[in-house]
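User: Hi! I have a protein structure encoded as tokens and I'd like to know what sequence might fold into it. I'm fairly new to this, so please keep things simple.
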């Protein structure tokens, strides 16, 4: 009769248990981060866009209110003896100063915003639709940071028969960075704001001039061709 020998396994040493526990903890954190990261990035990007748009609008309104910006402050119209407009000339120096002030105000406001709180429910982070918006909230600190570029654009389009609309647009492109512990979420914001506009009724001037300073012509537009195109439509 054969004798069977049973060899009992030796218990794991405390050091091995600690190592296995740490490995399991690291793997769990890694898997949780993979699942949660898309939700955090999406919500952070959305919040950053809200902050950026609000800052831009507030800065524009504040600067325009300070200077009482009007169309006739930015554009000089020249008329002939019959009262017809023969030329338009924009003050690019004044527009450049306005653009610079708005840009500086936006960037300064972003720097002064400080940390922003974002609250995400644990149910939303679980990815289960039935649990979305439920459970305790997880508080995240978002540090907004960013930069922007801006430019002035003179825009002309037909406003009807023998009518041409002239708009002075401020175009801004801003990238807001939501800096969250562990990674950064970048959000691009494009905004256009009409600084001033008017509708030219009747015969439009043959040329439009953008002058950076005395005698320095930057661009010349053929407005008559634009009006003819509008009449054909």
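Assistant: Happy to help. Inverse folding works backwards from shape to sequence: for each of the 233 positions I chose a residue that suits the local structure. Here it is:
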């Amino acid at each position: 009769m054969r004798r069977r020998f049973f060899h009992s396994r030796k218990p794991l040493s405390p050091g091995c248990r600690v190592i296995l526990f740490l490995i399991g903890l690291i793997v769990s954190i890694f898997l949780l981060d993979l699942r949660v990261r898309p939700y955090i990035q999406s919500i952070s990007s959305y919040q950053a866009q809200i902050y950026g748009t609000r800052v831009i609008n507030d800065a524009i309104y504040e600067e325009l209110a300070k200077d009482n910006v009007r169309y006739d402050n930015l554009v000089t119209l020249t008329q002939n003896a019959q009262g017809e407009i023969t030329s338009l000339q924009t003050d690019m120096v004044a527009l450049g100063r306005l653009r610079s002030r708005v840009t500086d105000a936006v960037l300064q406001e972003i720097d002064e915003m400080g940390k922003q709180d974002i609250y995400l429910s644990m149910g939303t982070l679980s990815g289960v639709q039935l649990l979305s918006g439920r459970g305790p909230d997880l508080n995240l600190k978002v540090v907004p940071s960013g930069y922007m570029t801006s430019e002035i654009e003179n825009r002309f389009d037909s406003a009807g028969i023998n009518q041409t609309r002239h708009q002075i647009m401020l175009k801004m492109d801003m990238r807001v960075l939501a800096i969250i512990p562990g990674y950064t979420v970048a959000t691009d914001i494009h905004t256009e704001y009409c600084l001033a506009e008017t509708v030219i009724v009747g015969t439009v001037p043959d040329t439009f001039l953008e002058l950076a300073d005395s005698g320095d012509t930057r661009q010349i537009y053929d407005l008559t061709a634009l009006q003819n195109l509008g009449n054909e439509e």
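A useful reference point when you look it over: Residues 14-114+141-232 form one domain. Feel free to ask if any position seems puzzling.
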